[in-house]
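CORE FACILITY INTAKE
Project code: CF-77B
Contact: R.S. (postdoc)
Sample description: multi-component assembly, two entities in total
Requested service: structural model of the whole complex
Turnaround: standard
Below are the sequence entries exactly as provided by the requester. Do not edit them.
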Amino acid sequence: MSDTPSGVVDLLGLLAYAELSAFLRLAEDAARLAPTLTDRAALSEVAANEYRHFRLVRDRLESLGADSEAAMAPFVAALDGWHEQTRPADWHEALVKAYVGTGIADDFYREMARAADPSVGGLVEEVLADQARAEFVVERVRNAVESDPALGGRLALWGRRLVGEALSQAHRVATSRPELATLVSPEDLAGIGRMFAQLTEEHNNRMAELKL
Amino acid sequence: MSDTPSGVVDLLGLLAYAELSAFLRLAEDAARLAPTLTDRAALSEVAANEYRHFRLVRDRLESLGADSEAAMAPFVAALDGWHEQTRPADWHEALVKAYVGTGIADDFYREMARAADPSVGGLVEEVLADQARAEFVVERVRNAVESDPALGGRLALWGRRLVGEALSQAHRVATSRPELATLVSPEDLAGIGRMFAQLTEEHNNRMAELKL
């Protein structure tokens, strides 16, 4: 523990709770909003995958001698806050959130891993390589939007809200956890701004993928 | 498909939806009721395990040429009904439900597998062997009951309600799906009654394990 920088424990704690809360929220959306059992199973698959990632990250935390509960605790408010601000109102919003949300998270961790301790970078890559990122979503959303252009407009706004709330929570985290911010951007705070700009651009690419 | 008895498809459809709905309800309980992040993760582990079983069973259904959605559909009302009648009011009720619920389900499938097609029996055994049946529950419930005897009384009643509602839904299923009932008890309907008596006895053993 003594030779693990506290920024690394923060990074893993953030990643762990992001996966655990994504698991639980996706399961909730699957139960609450899926129009068919097949859809429910498809979104449940995305959820179960998040749980697997959670376990990988938690095990890494514990192998570093960190208390996983303590490591996750500082990020509960930001991540729960994001989920509360972005509770899907219907199945299509749930699909877009699953796709965009797991996408933002992936980019976020990829950016952070670049700057972090090599062993953490390796873990993050392992989690990300395994990401079956809700690809089933793309076809369903495209088809729905094709036959209902008004839905497309609504989902495009929804996508902007998802990323806006995510960046707002990310700023909150960067401010309250200076060790984590330093790990991500050792040179200066402007590096954080550049990272967020990059995340937004990747988000826009995903929205284009969905034809939104 | 043509050489798969319809009772077997029923059995797998019931098992599949039982696992899928257990996954989603356990995730909901973990999100809603867990007092700590460690507890939330522990119940999430049980949930994720149920999802893995769901996938095994669904894949078997599909390899038999059955439509998994159609196979599950007849059992949605009974299983959702059970979950709605047994929504835990607090964390200890959630723990007992996880333990007792997965236990009843295991016994139920074990009994049924005995009578069913050998290939299905094999699958059911595979699912059951893999069951990490919420063993973490035992210690937590015992400790809680030891320091609060009134809680013990309340949870004992809760356990009776869980099994009572399960048997009531099982009767409903046995009545509405005669092929399934025949598969389970080819000789006569009294076999169903004996099976339910056996399930109740095993439930009582589990309650004793919890000191309830």
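Facility notes:
- Chain A has a mean pLDDT of 87.
- Residues 107 and 202 of chain A are 8 Å apart (CA to CA).
Invoice: internal transfer
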